Prior knowledge:
Blueprint: E1 6-13, H1 23-31, E2 32-42, H2 43-46, H3 55-73, E3 78-83, H4 85-96, E4 100-104, H5 109-123, E5 128-132, H6 154-167, H7 210-213, H8 218-229, H9 236-239, H10 252-257, H11 262-273, H12 277-298, H13 320-327, H14 334-346, H15 351-364, H16 369-379, H17 385-395, H18 411-418, H19 423-428, H20 437-440, H21 448-453, H22 469-485
Parallel strand pairs: 1-2, 1-4, 2-3, 4-5
Residues 240, 248-252, 255-256, 285-286, 288-289, 292, 351, 354-355, 358, 376, 380, 382-384, 387-388, 390-392, 395 line the site of flavin-adenine dinucleotide.
Amino acid sequence: MTEAALDSALFWFRRDLRADDNAGLGAALAAARRVWCAFVFDRAILDRLPSRADRRVEFIHESLLALDRRLAAAGGGVVVCHADAREAIPSLARSLGVQAVFANHDYEPEAIARDQAVADALAAEGIGFETRKDQVVFERREVLTGGGTVFGVFTPYRNAWLKKLDESGARELAEVPFSPAPAQLQPPPPGALRPDTLPLEAMGFEQTNLTELGIPAGEEGARTLLDAFLPRIDRYHERRDFPAVKGPSYLSVHLRFGTVPLRRLVRLARERAAASEGARVWLSELVWRDFYFMILSQHPHVVGGAWKRVYDRLAFEDDPALFAAWCEARTGYPIVDAAMRQLHRTGYMHNRLRMIVASFLVKDLLVDWRRGERHFADHLNDFDLAANNGGWQWAASTGCDAQPYFRIFNPVSQSQRFDPDGKFIRRYLPELDKVPVKYIHAPWTMPALEQRMAGCTIGSDYPAPVVDHAVQRVRALAMFKAATTDA
Ligand SMILES: Cc1cc2nc3c(=O)[nH]c(=O)nc-3n(C[C@H](O)[C@H](O)[C@H](O)COP(=O)(O)OP(=O)(O)OC[C@H]3O[C@@H](n4cnc5c(N)ncnc54)[C@H](O)[C@@H]3O)c2cc1C
């Protein structure tokens, strides 16, 4: 298909809810004289969500309201529908009479199957389906080892990623301008729904505490967070591990839904990297994101299975009572319980805490990592299959670049190190507010008199620990050893 040769096209927004620097939208605008835009609240995804009060659905809806306003200012708008995308997109394309549908690449197995089904349905009617790389800097097999294979370890991957970007003159980061010609963007056709005429309630969803939490949606929300983060970026490396401190960017939900272009973040980090260790470390985190997208696309067996297949043999105990205690923030280990409360109240969990609670679930409670992965998938605002699966498999030592399984996080010493005064713990566990710092990380060691003085009796005001870390550590090691020695 020759660029600028089409009369009309449809751009299908998915996890790229922005006008700025959007590769697929830019390609549609370059290819067609008239462009419509659409988003599908895909019932194949939404009907499976466990709760009707889901911050992500509200975040998407808020972001679409903003996007619709932005496109309307240029003569266009966003057509929305609540349907199965496999049917809705071909049907919309047909009714608009477009010659092609444009979108951005997706890497999740279900999304790949959906896109194939859409492409086939469109092809049957002579309509093209064109996709562009947008969510990552390098995708699939673009970064390879010297031997031409995909990397399984992060650090050499990152080095090769950085080198490839430098060698290309950072071509991959070139901004895709949003500059539609007059009358190029088409308003939604009469009768079509727009974000303001398809409220959450009409799809069976409810408002959540998103606004109350101050999580700003849309492109403007992402800009606000980025503007707040840039003055902190130089200290990122020193502060990012302390959950009580405003260290990270909190941009993950925006990266998840594409309300910020990754290319912009990488450009900003690179510009500062020579003079700022914080910027270098942050850039490295963005590369982790690409790494896990690559792993998912090249090793789709990680969905549901261990990356290192030998660990599919792990004989987890999977005690439902222990899993429930973890989910319900009553393990008796304050750092774990505070982190789980942060997850449920806000949909966010600090990265250090994600590592601690994941390790605790697998190596202290001996529960299958897939249960924890599912729980995070249900509750994280930034839930992303690639990063979540990668994070869980890393913590469970079943993944790539895994720490050897015998390095097991001690939840008490992690707590002492990363929340030394218990500031984060007290924020989410007010029942421990008066517990002296000396006992805040392991309150069960508090003598009875101190418990009375702190107004916190262990076993009634706050749970006794559900397991003994020292004992469970030995059992976890035996479980891992058995999986590898029987192999
Ligand atoms: C068990 C576990 C599960 C996780 N699940 C998810 C998930 O579902 N979605 C998700 O986006 N991240 C996930 N992470 C990675 C990380 O915890 C979050 O990206 C980070 O906490 C988001 O906060 P931030 O935006 O303030 O991060 P910042 O520290 O500001 O980092 C900037 C961006 O880099 C990316 N990033 C940072 N760390 C990682 C990482 N380890 N892996 C991949 N990308 C990273 C994210 O896009 C993040 O927004 C998980 C980590 C673990 C250990």
